[in-house]
Amino acid sequence: MPAARPARISNQRDGADEDAVAAGTTVDHLTETYRAHYRSLLGLAALLLDDTASCEDVVQEAFIRVHSARKRVRDPEKTLAYLRQTVVNLSRSALRRRILGLKLLSKPMPDMASAEEGAYDQLERDSLIKAMKGLQRRQREVLVLRYFADMTEAQVAETLGISLGSVKAYGSRGIAALRVAMEAPA
C-alpha cells in the first residue's frame, strides 16, 4: 500500500502542473515580455499608423487587452505574438476610425508641412511613405512587418493570421508595386 501513496501524490502534482499551464501566462511573464519588446512594438505601431502620436496609446492598449485575456495565452512563448497581433489589430482599428473621421469632415485638413522639410532624406522618406500608402492593406502590413519590424516570413504569417505562401505573395507584389511607385516621376 505505501507504493500507492507516492503515485497519488505524483498525480496530484501533475494535476497542479496542468492547472498552472491551463491558467495561462503569468502577469510577471507578460510584463517582462512587454518591457523587453516595448520599443519594437512601438516601432511596429509607428510603421502601421500614419500618426505617430497615437502609437504609444495603441501599444499600451495592446498590453491591457492581452493582460485581460492572459489566461488564453497558454503557451508563454506566444505572449509576444499575441502582443504583436493585438498591436496590428488596434492599428487597423485606429486607421478605420481616422478614415471615417476624414469622411465626416466638411473640408479637407490643410497640409502643414514645415519649411525645414526640404532635405533629401525627408523627401525620400515622404515618397516611400506615399508609395506605402498606395499599396493594398495586406501588402503594406506584410512589408512593414517583414522589413521594418525585422520579422521572419513565418512570424509575419503568424502575426497576420495568414499562410506563409500568402506572406510571400503579398511581399513580392508589394515590392513590385513600390518599385513602380518610387520610379514614377513625382
Automatic annotation (TrEMBL):
InterPro entries: RNA_pol_sigma-70-like, RNA_pol_sigma-70_dom, RNA_pol_sigma-E_actinobac, RNA_pol_sigma70_r2, RNA_pol_sigma70_r4_t2, RNA_pol_sigma_r2, RNA_pol_sigma_r3/r4-like, WH-like_DNA-bd_sf
Name of the protein in question: SigE family RNA polymerase sigma factor
Domain RNA polymerase sigma factor 70 region 4 type: 126-178
Domain RNA polymerase sigma-70 region, residue spans: 34-98
Pfam families: Sigma70_r2, Sigma70_r4_2
Family according to the record: Belongs to the sigma-70 factor family. ECF subfamily.
Residues covered by region (Disordered): 1-20
Keyword entries, A-Z: DNA-binding, Sigma factor, Transcription, Transcription regulation
